[in-house]
Amino acid sequence: MELASKYNPAEVEQKWYDYWMANELFKSKPDHREPYCIVIPPPNVTGVLHMGHMLNNTIQDILVRRARMMGKNACWVPGTDHASIATEAKVVAKLAEEGVKKTDLTREEFLKHAWEWTHKHGGIILEQLKKLGASCDWDRTCFTMDDPRSESVLKVFVDLFNKGLIYRGVRMVNWDPKALTALSDEEVIYKEQQGKLYYLRYKVAGEDGTYAVVATTRPETILGDTAMCINPNDPKNAHLKGKKVIVPIVGREIPVIEDEYVDVEFGTGCLKVTPAHDVNDYMLGEKYNLETIDIFNDNGTINDKVGIYVGMDRFDLRKQIEQDLINADLMEKVEPYTNKVGFSERTHVPIEPKLSMQWFLKMEQLAKPALDSVMNDDIKLVPAKFKNTYRHWMENVKDWCISRQLWWGHRIPAYFLPQGGYVVAETPEQAVELAREKTGNADLQLADLRQDEDCLDTWFSSWLWPISVFDGISNPENEEIKYYYPTNDLVTGPDILFFWVARMIISGYEYRGDMPFKNVYLTGIVRDKLGRKMSKSLGNSPEPLDLIKNFGADGVRMGLMLAAPAGNDIHFDEALCEQGRNFNNKIWNAFRLVKGWQVDETLAQPESAAIAVKWFDALLSKTIEVVNYSMDKYRISEALMEVYKLFWDEFSSWYLEMIKPGYQLPIDKATYEATLGFFDALLKLLHPYMPFITEELWQATYERKAGESLMTQLLPEAKAFDAKLIGDIEAAKDVITGVRNVRAQKNIPQKETVELEILGEHNSAYDAVILKLSNLAALSKCAEKSAGAVSFLVGTTEYAVPLGNMLNVEEEIKKLTEELEYNKGFLVSVMKKLSNEKFVSGAPEKVVEMERKKQADAESKIKSLEESIAALQK
């Protein structure tokens, strides 16, 4: 196989991906082997590849490829998520461009557009993942709204309803006025906002000129006020007990109630109570049986319930009502104020707390086994620092609002009866049967029933993902779910630890009686080199496919992983991808060098090559041990760095130099075969991280059979190795480096031989390597070094390179004398400080100690220089 002079990823990557696909090397079916299974965090069908996906899927591919090379039956299940809110928003926007409003369409017409959009865009991100090298079993691709997954979702809803865990009721929810749907607490992002604190005057009924003052950040909600609340223990507001006040502008008379909930220190100690628009006010309203007035339309405009400001947007109203209160002399004062405001994670608009009829899932009972399994380390979070965050959320879990006011998604399988009430069933046919039983009306038809308009929260489908991808809900005893479940590793971001991870654990215990996965690897956030989160709006996020085009997939994968310790943010810099590309080139060039050697089968193996082979064999085993340990601890970045250093520093920079034949000379067979064997092992170690270049070179190492691939070979195993040999060679390398440094200092070309004198203990077993790599004419033990020799230390042994006629003695004495004078001057300045009693007694001990060290170093240097000059003058 002829290799090009330069590595061109574009020529290699598609070729081998097509080869892997054609030979079905990513496919997995249950068999006798130990399974290793990962389910992909399903990206949204709206999505295209971004840097977070690149990181997450690179890690998954590394884990899957490594498991495959450990002889396991590796199965990586891909798929996409229907993403209710995001997808519906995209479809609504597309229709708007065509002049069509969602409200102009029937549900069926709208869903037809949504499916068309999904079929057109839904597979884009999966195709992009192939460019990265993702070795998913693509035949297993699932979609959260395909038939098997949809059937599973409805089955689970009905089951939980029948168990009494799903209920319907009017509750305070987080309302998204842009998406026009309820959100769960976890879909609300709190951000600090610079706003105002408004002090409003409420006239005390029946008393002229007497006002109670309320501080609020949301003056527009006075339209829904139905009480004022004071703390019964607050003396400054005791005069308001039992009285009524008049809501400013609105003119409504409301009672003053008393509850210790009110913070006497905040504002004036008077709290306006708006039960329809604040979760805490709602609780007060329930407790004191207050009227509830909902003032908002679903889109955040004012409804006609109060009769004023009808149709105004909530934020326009805030400005208007501020002015109207000032004009009416009902505004005491306005102050700047910073508070936390909840925003919709999906549409980025401020949410409105709103009373709404929704479906809820009781979580307390379901959450307990999921909490215990993580706290007991049955499921391990990597890094473990996230356990406390997980525990806090699970111990304070709230009922999950699972309904959404959307059309795109799994429609809630509840059917309302003509005379009131409802039934819950998996299919319309089953709903009719239940309705007939419940009403006693045998003539009831499907047309008499009305299915709930809402759909389920997207997470209500993805929380079943590790089970539903193997059809474990509808067919719980099938061969695949029994073989692959529980899966092994989940790779995801900590931002969805509760949205998704905790809920999958909950459903796993509820529907399989077991954990859904054994380990959760939590990646960090990909940031730019300035530490900013990557985003399209900031313009600091590179286009992943452009990176692959510029640096190759292997270069990008390596660049990401070198910067990606588990759970810590990744400060991404394209220079890392360049480092990855350079490493590809290093591997390529090293391979071409080795394959370019001519082999002479009659040649005996040189001693230096025999030593090199033994040494690298030991070093390879040592590195395999370290890599295995690091990978077992999910220190993927550290494992890659070990293999990187082994190849770049040890194999390329040392081993190949030790064995390289002279210019245009052949190599012996034993060394050549050993070297190809090492290359084979190195390619196997590198393959999970860099699959494309390693496949290309592995195929070129020896003749391969059709259909063979590096990805199905077993990883090399560590053998018992001689640690002393590794240490001895390190010492020999230090000697070689010392000689090379002398050459550099004295401008002696590498091609010129020099001699090396040894003054002390020395292990001569590796002299053949030292002689070759230092280009020595001789290596000899001496009692003292030659005049004018330049020496260096390795450990406690001094080595000297006699320069003889290679050195211009006069120039060298001149140079050393200048250096001596400089050091003497430096010593004088140090001694000046140390002879100053004020400095010695007043300066910190560390500072004085540093000056004393400078003194000792200078004295030692002066002595050495004086000896060198004296030797040259003999």
Characterize the structure shown.
The chain is of the alpha/beta class and 874 residues long. The chain folds into five domains: 19-156 and 462-527, Rossmann fold (3-Layer(aba) Sandwich); 191-349, Valyl/Leucyl/Isoleucyl-tRNA synthetase, editing domain (Isoleucyl-tRNA Synthetase, domain 2); 544-721, Orthogonal Bundle (Isoleucyl-tRNA Synthetase, Domain 1), CATH 1.10.730.10; 725-806, hypothetical protein PF0899 fold (2-Layer Sandwich); 809-873, Helix Hairpins (Orthogonal Bundle), CATH 1.10.287. 44% of the residues lie in helices and 17% in strands. Strands 7, 8, 9, 10, 11, 12 and 13 form a seven-stranded mixed beta sheet that branches. A four-stranded antiparallel beta sheet has the order 6-5-14-16. A four-stranded mixed beta sheet has the order 29-28-31-30, with helices on one face. Helix 15 links the parallel strand 22 (487-492) and strand 23.
